[in-house]
Amino acid sequence: MKQKVSNELSVKHLLGIKYLNESDIQLIFETADHFKEVINRSIKKVPSLRDITIANIFFENSTRTKLSFELAEKRLSADVINFSAGQSSVKKGETLIDTVNNILSMKVDMVVMRHPNPGAGIFLSKHVNAAIVNAGDGAHEHPTQALLDSYSIREKLGDVAGKNVVIVGDILHSRVALSNIFALKLQGANVKVCGPKTLLPKHVESLGVEVETDLRKALNWCDVANMLRIQNERLDISYFPTTREYTQQFGVNKALLESLDKEIVIMHPGPINRGVEITSDVADSNQSIILNQVENGVAIRMAVIYLLASKIK
User: Fold this and answer.
1) Alpha-carbon distance 157 to 264, whole Å?
2) Residue 173: which of 200, 193, 148 has the closest Cα?
3) CB atoms within 10 A of CB 223
4) Which of 237, 302, 310 is nearest to 29 (CA)?
5) 5-26 average pLDDT score
6) 122-135 in b/e burial notation, b at 16+ Cβ within 10 A?
7) If DSSP states are collapsed to H, E and C, what string results for the chain?
8) pTM score over 0.90
9) CA 231 to chain centre
């Protein structure tokens, strides 16, 4: 029996999937359904957040996530401030709280923040008077990515519950993997992780997932394969001999896909290292929903921002 969907979120901030319940996720998806219709109209804006000011504060480089949030905010008619730590007083030693409080003194209602330190959003939510959206904190969580991934599975396969999803690649350093595991399990999916043993967290089974180190077995089991990028910028030591060897063992090409017992759905959070995690003919194939994920990202972020803004008093 499906849980009744509430008309408001149970949280004031989106800090991580682990703070949400299933009803929150369903509410975000139903709201995103509405906004997906909006962004496919000829006039793509709604005046919903005309009185809300949102600051995008990115302490790490980001192109796709930042653009997606900014577009979502503008589609809702919010006022938007963009802040990049690289060109700021942070370089002069200013603290996170001082930086954000200076921005909030300009009467900002919501902060979308990406930060290299795990828990930065949680820390901030306890010290500033604004709604916080975590746009990625270190190797911890990336909740809107997990929401748009689940939403894309729901759109393609009708439901997330009962589906077999394998997450392939660098699980150890991936905030996308952790948020996806939380979101998929919450919705009743079966989850496996697959990758080199050196890139799998020691106690990953405690999250309710199974480990499979044979990619072909994992692909034959799954309905959906979410292929993660090898995060070279986070790899302080060598976790596998060469990129070529990684690709031979854990990369997906068209020949491998066509040799499987069934047709599966291919996802990737981007940016893609073409020829490493997946080849171009897989990324651009009919089995890939990578561009759908990008489009759905705007609708999901519109939904999250709209629902959190409705709780701002």
Assistant:
1) 11
2) 200
3) 18
4) 302
5) 94
6) bbbbeebebbbbbb
7) CCCCCCCCCCCCCECCHHHCCHHHHHHHHHHHHHHHHHHCCCCCCCCCCCCCEEEEEECCCCCHHHHHHHHHHHHCCCEEEEEEHHHCHHHHCCCHHHHHHHHHCCCCCEEEEEECCCCHHHHHHCCCCCEEEEEEECCCECHHHHHHHHHHHHHHHCCCCCCEEEEECCCCCCHHHHHHHHHHHHCCCEEEEECCHHHCCCCHHHHCCEECCCHHHHHHHCCEEEECCCCHHHCCCCCCCCHHHHHHHHCECHHHHHCCCCCCEEECCCCCCECCCECHHHHCCCCECHHHHHHHHHHHHHHHHHHHHCCCC
8) yes
9) 15
The closest alpha carbon to 146, from 87, 187, 202, belongs to 187
pLDDT digits (tens, 9 = 90+) for 110-144: 999 999 999 999 999 998 889 999 999 988 999 99
Output the CA–CA distances (angstroms, integers) from residue 202 to 168, 171, 194, 199, 207, in the order listed: 16, 11, 13, 9, 11
Give the pLDDT confidence of 140-167 residue by residue, as tens digits: 999 999 999 999 999 999 999 999 999 9
Environment class of 18 (CB within 10 Å of its CB; exposed 0-12, middle 13-18, buried 19+)? middle
Please tell me the distance from the alpha carbon of residue 197 to that of residue 230, in angstroms, as a whole number: 14
